[in-house]
Structure formats: C-alpha cells, structure tokens
Amino acid sequence: MATNYAVTIPSLNNAPNPSGSLQFPDQPGPSSDNLLQCTYTDTISGTAQVQLLWCPEQGFSLPDSEANDPNFGSVSFTYDPPLV
Length: 84
Known about the structure:
This protein is mainly beta. The chain has one domain. Helix content is 5%, strand content 40%. The chain has a four-stranded antiparallel β-sheet with strand order 3-4-5-6, with no helix packed on it. The protein has a three-stranded mixed β-sheet with strand order 2-1-7, with no helix packed on it. The chain starts with a strand and ends with a strand. The relative contact order is 0.32.
C-alpha cells in the first residue's frame, strides 16, 4: 500500500520560494538543466523526509528514486503563506 505525504513549501510574493541545493552548484539555476534539490518534513507523520526537485518553469517533481517506487504514494503541497 502506498503512503501519501504532505509538505508545506515557503512562499514569497505569492509564489513558491523553495530552499535547497542546486544539482550543479557551480552553474546558474534553478532551471530545467540545474534543478533545486529540496527536502521537506512530511506534515502528516512529522518524521518522514520528502525529497523534491524544483524548476521554476516546471514546478515540483519527484526524484526518479521516489517517482519509480510503487510504495511511495503521492505528495500534496500547501504554501506558507498561502498562495492567492
């Protein structure tokens, strides 16, 4: 059975403002060629860590390891402060 997760993403000026580290820190990003690697605590369990990739043009995606894991489930997003 798949486990579902929920994460809260910081926002700024009515847009997502994720924090993390670039895949290639010595190159400009985040972009589709240099994604921002983010880690958030699951707000359901309060203990599990959820890995996400961020690209301004594409939004959030799961790393291949999580996207290809049939037991991973899905991730729902909320923003703090909420987006309007």
